[in-house]
Amino acid sequence: MLFTPTVIKNLLKKPATRLYPFTVREPFPNYRGELYIDIDGCIFCGTCSRKCPSQCIEVDKNEGTWTCNPHACVYCGICRDSCPTKCLHMKDVHRKPMTERIMMVEKGEPPKPKKKAAAAEAPKAADKKAEPAKADDKKAEPATADKAKKK
Amino acid sequence: MIGKVIDVTVDNVVGEVMKMKNDGHRLVTFSTYQEGEDGLGILYHFDKELETTHLRMTVKRDAPIPSVSGVYFAALLVENEIRDQWDVKFDGLVLDFNRSLYLDPEVTQVPLVSNVKIEPKK
Amino acid sequence: MFGSFIKKSRAKSPWIIHFDCGSCNGCDIEVLACLTPLYDVERFGVVNVGNPKHADVLLVTGTVNHRNKKVLKNIYDQMPEPKAVIAIGACGNTGGVFREAYNVVGGVDQVIPVDVYVPGCPAKPEAIIDGVVVGLGKFAQKVEEAD
Amino acid sequence: MATTVIPFGPQHPVLPEPVHLTLKVEDEIVKEAIPALGYVHRGLEKLADIRDYHQMIQVCERVCGICSMIHAVCYSQAIEELMGVEVPKRAQVLRVIWSELHRTHSHLLWLGLFADAFGFESLFMQFWKIRERIMDINEATTGSRVIVSVNVIGGVRADLSPEQIRWILSEVDIVEKEVRALQDTIMNDYTVKARTVGVGVLSKENAYLLGAAGPTLRGSGVAQDMRMLGYGGYSEIDFEPVVETSGDCWARSTVRFRETLQSMDLVRQAIAKLPEGELAAKVKGNPPEGEVYTRVEQPRGECVYYIKGNGTKHLDRLRIRTPTFANIPPLLAMLPGCELADVPVIVLSIDPCISCTER
Amino acid sequence: MSNLLFLLILLPAVAALVCYFVRSSAVRTLTVVATGAILTIASLALLGQGTFEPLAVGSFLGISSDFLVTILDFALLGVIFAYGIKHKNLLIQGFTLAQAVLLAWFELVVVEHAAVPALVGDQLSLIMVLVVSIIGSLICIFAIPYMKEHEEHLHLKKSRQPRFFLFLLLFLGAMNGLVLSNNILWLYFFFEVTTLCSFMLIGHDATEIATKNSVRALWMNSLGGLAFVVGMMLVYSKTATLDISAILAAGPQGALMVTGIGFLCLAGFTKAAQIPFQSWLLGAMVAPTPVSALLHSSTMVKAGVYVVLRFAPAYVGTLLSDGVAVCGAFTFVACAALCIGQSNGKKILAYSTVSNLGLIICCAGINTPLAITAAVMLIIFHAISKSLLFLCVGTIEQAIGSRDIEDMRGLYAKYPRTATITIIGILTMLLPPFGVLMSKWMAIEAASSNIYVIVMLAMGSALTVVYWARWGGSLMATRAEGAVPEKQAALIRMPLTVLCLGAVVLSMASPWIYNSMLAPMFNAPPFTVSLGSLDAATGSFAVVPLFIVLGLGALYAVKAASGFRKVKIVAPYLSGSNVGEEGTYIGPMNGHVPFAAGNMYLGELFAEGKLTPIFNALAVALIVLMLGGAL
Amino acid sequence: METLILVIIGLVAGPLLGGLIAGLDRRVTAWFQSRQGPPIMQAFYDVAKLFGKEKMVVNQWQILCAWVYMIAAAASVGLFFAQGDLLLIFFVQAVGAVFLVMGAMSAKSPYSQVGAQRELMQILAYEPVLILVFVGIYLVTGSFSIEAVWQLDQPLLAKMPLLYLALGYALTIKLRKSPFDFSTSHHGHQELVKGVLTEYSGPYLALIEIAHWYETVLVLGLCALFWSTNVAYMAVLLLATYMLEILVDNTMARMTWRWMLKRVWLLGMGMSVVNLIWLYAG
User: Fold this and answer.
1) Residue D217 Cα distances to D67, D199, D244, D327, angstroms
2) Predicted TM-score (pTM) of this structure
3) Least CB-CB distance to D122: which of A3, A28, A55?
4) C96 to chain A: which residues are within 8 Å by CB?
5) What was the pLDDT predicted at E565?
6) CB proximity under 8 Å: B 67-96 to D
7) For residue range E365-394, what is the model confidence (pLDDT) as tens digits?
8) Residue to test with chain D: of E402, E470, E474, E577, most D Cβ within 10 A
9) Does residue D319 lie within any of the structural domains?
10) Can you give the pLDDT at residue B99?
11) Is residue B26 situated within a structural domain?
């Protein structure tokens, strides 16, 4: 019964519980959360792909795609640190849960060999939108989570 | 590598390990590495008052290796592990899991034999 | 009336079972941390029952390997319907950093159907709570479909 | 007398990890305990074939999520020794700080789980509540709560700012105060003692012969702690191993409890001696041919890395021996003769980390 | 009236002789079944005629029946003595010799041979006759197919069944005689007949162990016989009458007479196998199961408690009474404790019998109308349930070849009928609203004013729950679809079914049984019956309402359970270990580990070997105190 | 007629009260642990959800046993409200306890088997104590029936303080609280998983939960008898007792059944006997 003082103290004090998701704590600034790419800055050098310990990033220089499997990503931040153009970033919040597996596919403008200079203008705007596959699901889920947050 | 390395052979390994035990050494573990095409290097690591001693033995994988689990009971786990990883046999293992300590029958290749390279999965 | 109360209760009383399916313990301790005072998922009626026969939600952490895939299947089968599966962490999702290792089969969805994927390595307790919330949504949807 | 066979695990609420024990009990007294492993075996040592030696540091961190920092330290030290890299002093001391924070959170976690093993749920909650402060320190300083990923070959990736140091010190003080408040409960409470004193006794000789490591060994009266080697930043710091002599579950929990307090002291010492300087040395080329044998002290005991380089960026052999691997034979020796109710207490008293054990 | 009495006492004896001499199994079967039927009808008819005052039995072939009994008495002692010599047992020889000498002196010197009405039929006697005749007959009928199988199993060249049924049927007659006797010498005679019969039946299989145990039973019961003679003489020395009714009517008559009663009680203790005499009854397990059933339920041991209960009015309010109560209560708790450590089904039944007899004796010792009611109720319901359970164990043993309860796990899967009956039997021993528990309830309420007794009863009743519940539970299992239906011989099924129904239905009828048979025993009956419940100032037991509520509940539950095919049947939780081949799981080394579960027998607390000597010593001390208290 | 109404009130109010107490219990426990805890109605959500789950058993007998357990528990509460005989109430309650054990034993599962054995040990521990408590009440009131208790002009507690403490043991065992939560623990983190309840699932677990509520009401009702003279004090006594139970639950490790047997038999029985001797003498 030597534990009694502690439980009595607990009883008299306010519970320590953080009321997540109703109140969300201010995140720590350098938390390694959701990874995203600023595709405009990407030069498709492939360093992130080579450095990634989980080997979850694929960079296709010819197609100009940067593909990452967020489910295999281990959020170590190596890719971010090694990116020569600093176009990889990590949000300070975690990636939201999903009901389907997704692939992050970002299509950007590969550094052009001089002659195809003007060719890639057209698709650029359309492909800004991330994750063409399963995009709907992914949108739906954070929405419910947001709703819960507001409650 | 820190510590004294003593070379032993299949014939005197048990005796040498016994000697270490009588000397008051604690068996830390074994380490293994590939030695040539079909050889296996085993390092027995011992510790006595933070001083390290190693016994080094090289064997062929197809011949049974004398088990020291009779000397140090603690060796049974690591010997079973080596059995799993290199598909070698130990003579006189006190509790022989017979290649089932870690692996299920689905794993058909011998994991650490390096000519059986594992292909990255897609 | 009782029927609708049952339906309402489903979302209010998700009993979980946590199976560590070859995880590095990173996600495990975060799952356990969810039960502790700072996160206290019991607010949502979550109880860690530790017995598949009582559980509604299966939280799986870790990679599936050849030995534990049978265990995972067994546990899943022993859970009564309706049930939901939440795969936690990179390993549970895909096998994570280990997915090329020789004894690794891959993510949880190689063996049983997964309802919610919680990414992260390890997933934060907040992420797991989010996952359970999403899972309950999925759960309610499943029940609707079944009726 | 009738025998009951109990399949204890792989999925069992008191075992946080999948491991199986086939227990044969009579009148709830364990007569025989046979283990089965392999539920967490991933084969990550083999990953060295396809991941380069830099990437392997992330893999080694994930040998075990609880002591990931210290795995990374051990691995980095091994590679640094192999390649002859001189690690800057500041990085060494920072590694000590994070290592000791890891030890604190691991021990607090264990103390909680241990309390849960003998059915003391409130104590579990209390320890885990305190632990969250350490997790916050981890998150704030490294960017992740559990797997901090601050090590690189040659040093560390993150730094502590003076404000952070002040905050850490104040948090550490609070944690220490709160932990001390539980000292009476974990060491002197009647019911706790009834469940731990004299349970799972491991004599000094047995502990030594069976190759026990860490608190399991120290709880049996052997003063053996790898930090006594003064590796890395520990050479700067005063350190005395914590030893108890009774060899039972109570001794092991007391060792860990006192180490928790000690770790916080070590954090303070390290912070006081934190020199200015570089965070990481530059590392060029591949590990040369050669062997390294490194030992560090993890929360669970002595962790051994054996590395064999071959001059390429892939290692020829990476061998990890974790403390729990060494503690399983003593566990098997402790189980027969105990009560069924004491099985979880004894199993947890070695602080099993199966994920470490099987890799 | 007297025809009925002759029928009840002599018909079994005649039938016994027929069985012995006509060596045809058909005739034997017919005789046994017919005797059983006649006995049942006769006992019911006797009940229908109601109680009767002591009545004299005339002469038989010109010889006075009293004289005939005396002659037979000595003949009997002679036979027993001969067996004592045959088995070289000094105890038997000594005890019998002492009996013969004392009896001779008593008969020839002390007693003035006045005509004593030999038979009496009060409530207690009538109830006992019913118990003996009906339950005994059912057991005898059960014995027919059982013994056939038993002998086939033993591969006997020459059937020993004639001898077996001789003593089995003789036993019933002796018991009927015993409970109807009014002349204490007659009582003594029948008492000795049961001793001889039990000896012959225990030793029936003629194995070494059977002989050994039968000899032990004989010497212990001879000791009882000796105590009986001594008691009888002491009582006579004070009351100067052999008429039991008169002795009882007079009540306690000073120290010497009460000591005499004390010796009679001691005789009852030996026969009822009270600690420290329990070993003979445990040894009797070697006999074929019908013998055990007979000894444990309706005969032999009941003769013991009958004697104690019969003389209860003669020691009411004395210290002896308290002593008897404490001894009984001690046996109750001690045997319940010993029973915890047993896994042998028959031994559990044996210890439970002794334990329950202890409770009956304890009630006799408490000696209030409430307690006596409890005792009689317990005699009735215990006899039914216990005989049922013995027959069940016998059936199970012949089916599975073991009487160990660990081997009976999941019996339902293969033998649903036997298992269900056994489970019901166990429940009737254990739970309300069944009769045994009701008697226990009465006993506890009656004992509440005696602190020693109540503490022991409280402990004992808890221990009882343990050994019954775990047995009952382990019989249950799921029947696979399309499993082979169980076969049971008609003559086995009939007694089982009748007893099982009887246990349930009579329990339900207990308020009326009480009203019609027990209440008239007392000037101030302890209960009033209203709405099917037994009410008293101290408490009430709502028999019929409970039966209705729990019965309907149970019926609903059975209905819910029998719809189980709609329910998913799954493998048990084995911590996620996969179920391997039938009854195994996949364990270490990927091997198939057979599933096993065992009960706890609390070896360190309730070890038979350790506890028995302690209990025996304590019991001897208590008995000495009891007899000393009488003085 | 009045009795019948009382019985019906008891049968309806029993589970409602029991569920509410269970909810409150979890809430207060959470507060003791510095947590916020579940909603008060949580116990009802849990049971309602369980009723909606798939029906799944290892053995058909479990269904029977779960139902009988529930019915017996309800019947004992009914009898309690009908002011029946205390011993009889207890024996009817024991029907439930025995069936729970038998149901657990019917499954070929080591956990529920060992749980059943432990449950028996618990019965072995608390049954004598409870019987002695009833005997104490009999000695004070001259009857085993509850009716007699209401006619007292002095609370039972004044004459049976030690027996009340002994009842505390039985209460802790019956409520399945630490240090006596071996056969099935509410927390589930136990070497026996859920002990006797391991193999019950879905609706059958719900039945058992409801039965447990009835039992909670019954044992608290027994406690209430100890201050029958004043409703306010009775409430205070109950509240204090239950809070103490929760406190004990939260400040003690789970012990072993061997410890329990020794402890309850020596201390519990000892206190009871001392108190009884006092009553006999008085």
Assistant:
1) 18, 15, 9, 9
2) 0.89
3) A3
4) 54, 72, 74
5) 66
6) 72-74, 76-78, 95
7) 888 888 888 899 899 899 888 888 888 888
8) E577
9) yes
10) 77
11) yes
- Partners of A22 on chain F (C-beta within 8 Å) are none
With a cut of 80, say whether residue A57 has pLDDT above it: yes
Domain assignments of chain A as residue spans, ordered by start: 25-107, 113-151
Residue D61 in domain: yes
E594-612 pLDDT, tens digit each: 777 777 787 777 778 888 8
| CATH number, position D217 | 1.10.645.10
Q: Chain A contact for D178, CB < 8 A?
A: no
Distance CA E531, CA E541 (A): 11
The pLDDT of residue F188: 63
Q: Is CATH 3.30.70.3270 what the domain over A25-107 is classified as, yes or no?
A: yes
Using a CB-CB distance cutoff of 8 angstroms, which residues of chain D are in contact with residue E600? Answer: 27-28
Q: Which two tokens stand for residue E46?
A: 């006797």
Distances in whole angstroms, Cα of residue D150 to Cα of each of A77, D99, D143: 10, 11, 9
Kindly list the structural domains of chain C, giving each domain's residue range(s) and its CATH number in brackets, ordered by start: 14-136 (3.40.50.12280)
Give Cα separations from D296 to D71, D252, E461 (angstroms): 8, 20, 61
Asked if B29's CB is within 8 angstroms of D329's CB, the reply is no
Q: Of F231, F235, F221, F226, whose CA–CA distance to F76 is shortest?
A: F221
Chain D touched by E402 (CB under 8 Å):
no
Point out the residue among F58, F65, F127 whose CB comes nearest to the CB of E572.
Answer: F58
* Alpha-carbon span A108 to A93, nearest angstrom: 25
Model confidence pLDDT, tens digit, residues E126-147? 888 888 888 888 888 888 888 8
Tens-digit pLDDT profile for residues F38-85: 899 888 888 888 888 888 888 888 888 888 899 999 999 998 988 888
Overall domain count for chain B = 1
Of A113-127, D187-201, E562-576, F9-23, the poorest mean pLDDT is in: A113-127
Retrieve residue C93's tokens: 């999702």
CB atoms within 10 A of CB E299: 28
- Rounded-to-integer distance, Cα F148 and Cα E557, Å: 35
Indicate the SS3 state at residue D287: coil
Total structural domains within chain D: 1
Distance, C-alpha D86 to centroid of its chain? 26
3-state secondary structure of B112: coil
Residue B28 domain flag: yes
- Chain segment D267-297, per-residue pLDDT in tens: 888 888 888 888 888 888 888 888 888 888 8
Q: Give E244-264 as a DSSP string.
A: HHHHHHH---HHHHHHHHHHH
**Residue C64: beta bridge partners?**
C106
Q: What mean pLDDT do residues D89-103 have?
A: 89
- Least confident interval from A49-63, A86-100, E271-285, E474-488: E474-488
